[in-house]
């Protein structure tokens, strides 16, 4: 289906999207990260733009090209992602939080490369919890329409419904981690206050368009 012929579900709307993983340094050459190719978030950014929105994409490290017409801001860490989101959130109509944000950063990161001593002695990492970007946006006085994503490994329905309530957001999109990581297809389940709706197995680009239509109907 030709991109230019997509229905303009989001004409005159401003949409902010996070995508990809975050990367939390251990030292200048090492770090911890989450599994996320960025494909779903980038597909949603592309679909939102096709639907007529003005789209800002705040992205962790990915190997993907910027979707046509989308403004992209690159970040590495969760703190950088939080700062970029905060500085772009005003006047947004929709915030779609697709990024796989690392829940912890390294509290005792080293400014220099940690050397391997070869004596069987390994360094001990200390962790600090990262800010919850989505929950902080949802808690703003006049928040945009907030959409969360959850990749679970089991009990999707239960975890997704609990997460939607805990973060106080109107819409949460659930999927099963091992069925989506790095893949071009997926199945999505939408959870809102009325219940759940499954978007059946299909390409991430088709699912992204269906999700954009669903979001536009809820604005
Ligand atoms: N999220 C976020 N900032 C974080 C963690 C998560 O904005 N520090 C967002 C994600 O982008 C996603 C949603 O919150 O839209 C759910 O993320 P998830 O990792 O599934 O939820 P958590 O509350 O971190 O719970 P879990 O213990 O299952 O990881
Ligand atoms: Ca998490």
From TrEMBL:
Region annotated Phosphopantothenate--cysteine ligase, chain positions: 15-219
Reaction(s) the record says it catalyses: N-[(R)-4-phosphopantothenoyl]-L-cysteine + H(+) = (R)-4'-phosphopantetheine + CO2; (R)-4'-phosphopantothenate + L-cysteine + CTP = N-[(R)-4-phosphopantothenoyl]-L-cysteine + CMP + diphosphate + H(+)
Keyword presence, Lyase: yes
DNA/pantothenate metabolism flavoprotein C-terminal domain: residues covered: 10-217
GO MF, any single term: phosphopantothenoylcysteine decarboxylase activity
EC annotation from Swiss-Prot or TrEMBL: 4.1.1.36, 6.3.2.5
The protein's annotated pathway: Cofactor biosynthesis; coenzyme A biosynthesis; CoA from (R)-pantothenate: step 3/5; Cofactor biosynthesis; coenzyme A biosynthesis; CoA from (R)-pantothenate: step 2/5
Domain of life: Bacteria
Job of this protein: Catalyzes two sequential steps in the biosynthesis of coenzyme A. In the first step cysteine is conjugated to 4'-phosphopantothenate to form 4-phosphopantothenoylcysteine. In the second step the latter compound is decarboxylated to form 4'-phosphopantotheine. Catalyzes two steps in the biosynthesis of coenzyme A. In the first step cysteine is conjugated to 4'-phosphopantothenate to form 4-phosphopantothenoylcysteine, in the latter compound is decarboxylated to form 4'-phosphopantotheine.
The family this protein is said to belong to: In the C-terminal section; belongs to the PPC synthetase family. In the N-terminal section; belongs to the HFCD (homo-oligomeric flavin containing Cys decarboxylase) superfamily.
Protein name: Coenzyme A biosynthesis bifunctional protein CoaBC
Part of the full-length chain shown: 178 to 396 of 396
């Amino acid at each position: 289906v030709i991109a230019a012929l997509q229905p303009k579900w989001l004409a005159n709307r401003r949409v902010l999207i996070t995508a990809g993983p975050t990367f939390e340094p251990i030292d200048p050459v090492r770090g911890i990260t989450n599994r996320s190719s960025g494909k779903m978030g980038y597909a949603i950014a592309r679909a939102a733009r096709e639907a007529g929105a003005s789209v800002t994409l705040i992205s962790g490290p990915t190997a993907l090209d910027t979707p046509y017409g989308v403004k992209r801001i690159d970040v590495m860490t969760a703190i950088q992602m939080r700062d970029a989101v905060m500085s772009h959130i005003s006047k947004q109509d929709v915030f779609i939080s697709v990024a796989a944000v690392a829940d912890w950063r390294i509290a005792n990161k080293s400014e220099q490369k940690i050397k391997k001593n070869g004596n069987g002695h390994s360094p001990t990492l200390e962790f600090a919890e990262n800010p919850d970007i989505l929950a902080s946006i949802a808690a703003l006085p006049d928040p945009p329409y907030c959409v969360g994503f959850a990749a679970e490994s089991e009990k999707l329905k239960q975890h997704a419904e609990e997460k939607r309530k805990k973060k106080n957001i109107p819409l949460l999109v659930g999927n099963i981690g091992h069925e989506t990581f790095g893949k071009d297809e997926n199945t999505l389940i939408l959870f809102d206050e009325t219940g759940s709706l499954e978007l059946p197995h299909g390409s991430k680009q088709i699912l992204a368009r269906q999700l954009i239509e669903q979001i536009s109907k809820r604005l």
